[in-house]
Amino acid sequence: MKDYFLNKIVDDLDEQGRVKVAGHEWQNSAVFENMDPVAFEEHVNAALTERVTLAKERAAAFLEQTGSRENFELLCERVQRNVVMPFVGAGMSISSGFPLWGDFLLRLSDDDANLKSRVQQHLENSRFEDAAQEVADAIGDEAFTNDIHAHLGRSRRDPDGPVQLLPMVFRRGCITTNLDEVLERVYRAQNAVFSSEPCGEQLKNLQGFINPDDNVLFKLHGTAVHPNGRILTRNEYQRAYGNDIALSDLLTRLTGNKHLLFLGCSLSADRTLQALTEINQTAGVNTPSHSAFLPLSENTDRLGRRQQLNAANIHPIWYPHEPGEDHDQPIEDLLVCMIEGGLDD
Fold first, then answer.
1. How far apart, in whole angstroms, are the C-alpha atoms of residue 304 and residue 53?
2. Nearest to residue 254, comparing CAs of 225, 286, 303, 288?
3. N or C: at which end does the chain have fewer Cβ atoms within 10 angstroms?
């Protein structure tokens, strides 16, 4: 966790100005570290302790405010038992420079107002594969594939934001709907390279026992770099799941007895939520319950959302959020608490 906060601690030092001597300038942090490395290290450690303390205080406050403390403490207990697998959505890649899927599709629709209107309507009704199909049909499959690669397949800058904390909490597998390679790069940087990265239609062909302790990255929709086996448009969904294995069966195999934690996912009435609802309704035995970090604003229909999520056995851990506010801080606070083993009593 020290490496994660180091740049922020250094930035705080450098905001105090620069050291000027005989017409030359140096950053405060560089002068401090070179002149007294022991004192610099002590400062960094003290600043880290302060940041962790503040994260716990902020998290405890908003969890109490939203009535989510008990659900979060239960999640932390499960994390300590290594029975939680993260399910990572596009919201965790925004800080690394990648757009949300809906925003990306709308951007590709800019050339035609009618197309954009149809795409917008699909997105408002959580029909993401229909929205993708509209765009692919309008601009052509090759152009669609090229735009996905250009916008989501390139490493334009280093990963940023709380996604970098995930390997410090979870090292036994991860599921994602993202096409980018942020997770691969983050885990590689933390010396927790995934043992394999099956994606898209490859997941249907997984045979035999899936070891729940293996550090495997399951990419449900495929990858931006390789279009083969991608599952994004309505036609691709029908080819992958329509007359073959159902998405609910696939998720059952991937998760086993793991509890999922959804991060950066809107969890609207999309296929993932529908599949988990089906699993919960048809299972002959109790299925593992799941958690989700979700924003709570004044306009949130809290009861309606609870009912929708409860049907899929997902229990929200709310953090306060209004339009235009940053999601990173509360998610960072929650992940820091999980790294530290939970909230202080």
1. 34
2. 288
3. C
